[in-house]
Amino acid sequence: MRYQELSSPQIAGLDRNRAVVIIPIAALEQHGPHMPTGTDNILCTAVAEAIEKKNREEMLLLPTLWQGASAHHLRFGATVSAELETYIATLCETAASLLEDGFQRILFLNGHGGNIDPMRVAIRELQPEYSNALLVAGCYWSIAEDLINEHLEGDHKFVGHACEFETSLMLHVRPELVDREKVSNAGELIPDSIDGFFVSRDMMQRTHEGFTGRPDLATKEKGDALFSGIVEKLTNLIKTLQAQPLGITYDEFKDLT
After folding, report:
1. I want to staple 31 with a disulfide (CB 3.0 to 4.6 A). Which of 1, 64, 162, 185 is the partner?
2. For the chain, which residues make up each domain, given as ranges?
3. Under CATH, which number does the domain 3-241 receive?
4. Closest CA relative to residue 252, chosen from 135, 145, 133, 156
């Protein structure tokens, strides 16, 4: 079910204890010379809509929040970003609107690395007030480490930025938006940690042209396999979230151990 396509009486009639509400979150930012600025929004939306088709009776899909926490891309231009405090507040208020309406199972489905810390802070802020709700947040690729290791050929066996993974997915979802003449090897990625300690560096400090990894190794075939595998895994996740108990004490959850 898609929230924006339902009337208020239809939404009022939904089972709030059972429905898993999906809030896709993404970004609008530069993706190097070969990928569109809307990459995160396009890919996250495509994944979310694909799992909605498979879980129409179990989930309620909101429109994708296209603006993200992208300050680390601003120096490259072609980027629209929200301040961290604004973004966290937006996530909290969006989810709170649904929680106040009685929905109990909320999933932020993320498509942008810069949103990871803010979305975790957001559900941490929400949890004390809505402790009986199931509040979940994660990237759509977090569930697919095995697929990533199987299909990516480059040394970066992880999701970077306009990388082999994202470029392959875009070749599956919207191939006409990939400028194949400008696809190249990104070269070395400057690390964001020293001896396990996080170092805050923006994309102009970490990359040569604002992208990472080996998009030159991306193929539509990899994108097809990654997309279908991720959708299957997320479809199963929705069913798992629907079956999770709701409660406020240890005794209500101890059967999960």
Report:
1. 162
2. 3-241
3. 3.40.50.10310
4. 133
